[in-house]
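[job 0412] stage=complex_fold ligand=magnesium ion status=START
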Amino acid sequence: MPALSFLLAWTILAAGWEIGAITGVLNPDILPPPSVVIPYIFQGPGAAGIGSQQVTYAEAIAKTLARVMIGLSLGLMAAVPLGTVLAVVNPVRQLIMPMIQTIAPIAPVAWVPVAIALLGIGDQSAIFVVFMGVFAVMTLATAAAIENVPQELIKTARSLGARGHRLWLWVMLPATAPSLLTIVRVNFFAAWMAVLAGEMAGINSGLGALIILGQQQFNMRLVMTGVITIGVLGFAIDR
Amino acid sequence: MAELCFEQVSKVYAGHPAVVDVNLTVPSGSFTALIGPSGCGKTTLLEIAAALIPATTGRVLLGGKPITRPGPETAIVFQHHNLFEWMTVQDNVAFGLRTQGISRHERRLRAGKLLADVGLIDHAHKLPHELSGGMRQRVAIARALVLNPQVLLMDEPFSSLDYQTRRVMQRYLLAMWHHAQATVVMVTHDLDEAIALADQVVLFSGSPGCIVETIRIPLERPRQPEDTRLQEIRAHLRHHLEKEVALGEFTAAELAALRREGMTADL
Ligand SMILES: Nc1ncnc2c1ncn2[C@@H]1O[C@H](COP(=O)(O)OP(=O)(O)O)[C@@H](O)[C@H]1O
Ligand SMILES: [Mg+2]
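[job 0412] stage=complex_fold status=DONE, emitting structure tokens
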């Protein structure tokens, strides 16, 4: 029963935290206990911030999720065709592969200044950061997935009369589909990390910004709300 | 059914010759076994005959016409079944019909009939990973036969099966072959398999590979392994193979030493 064991783990974590706060081992002003944070979340942590920087909890969640999904989708839509071309057309591979390999290891948060300079603060920047965080890795993984389709499988399909777009649609795509799903799943985490890093590092909206705002106002309930929300959402979406 | 003819076929991979000057005629409707040490280009020859890779020089004729691209007249089966794991057994068998634009209804009919012939109709809606190794290879053969090919090329089709299953599969293949009336070329490492099935056994040697001998076995099938004529052929083939393997494994100096020790008197 994995669901049960998760419930148990969370209960123990919350209980330990609560006891820590009551006994004073954990400073409740810095780490407000669940008995404070959970009601705070359910009451809806109201608007924090002032003026144009004001963020509501629900808005922050919606913004962050939308950025992850759009950035990840765009990344996938770019990576699959490019990865395919890299795997199949050798001259393109020779030229483009080194570029992609250079971009892949760059931490997504490093793109934040570039994004802000190019696109200002806002959704476009956040999506750009997510895109840059996943696009190169997904391209390399797609190329690898295609190259890993056994040559004999392709030869068998060709000898049975499959060629051109049918070979791709009926054999290459389904043969790589499991790898592509894994690629999306793994990169969902990368995208999730990228968007939060971006939101904390200057794109002043979304869940990441909520945490920074809590920090600036020394509203630790808000900080903990952000942290818990990130954990729960990341966990839930990966199910 | 048609005669398959290799004419002066050579293949060079990136400067390395794999096979040179292969001339071989496989009579219409006959069964030919290719035997030789690994790396001598047997797979290469089959893939050239299936038009999956081009010959560097020479050509392969089917019924007098050069083979230029993969077509329904030639089918190939590898050691690994290469079934499409995401398709049911029936869809795997029907794949060749689908590429030929045959209607769904007729595909289901023809694949179903073939599956019934090979005793797998109860498994038609399973996925390949639910079958045993022998069943998977039977599905692979059924899939290859679905377009009624004139030539069936098989590259060590049973080597990954255990001994008992292999024997059963050989009998099964004889029955299918009888039924399908195809010209068969089969690569094998198993001498007993070759002499149990083939009308002619072609011995390959070395690297780059070339044909060293062609042995005809004009005996009725099914054959009795105890048959003295088969035993003689078997001994001859074994001698050849061991010599080839020794030449591949040991240097000339090592072989000379072995000969002095009397270990390999006949090499
Ligand atoms: N795609 C390839 N590229 C380069 N060399 C190859 C390729 N395929 C086979 N070879 C080489 O050609 C020779 C013959 O290979 P193969 O036809 O597989 O032999 P066999 O089936 O008799 O074991 C071997 O030396 C092998 O390494
Ligand atoms: Mg081989």
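Chain B has a mean pLDDT of 92.
[job 0412] exit 0
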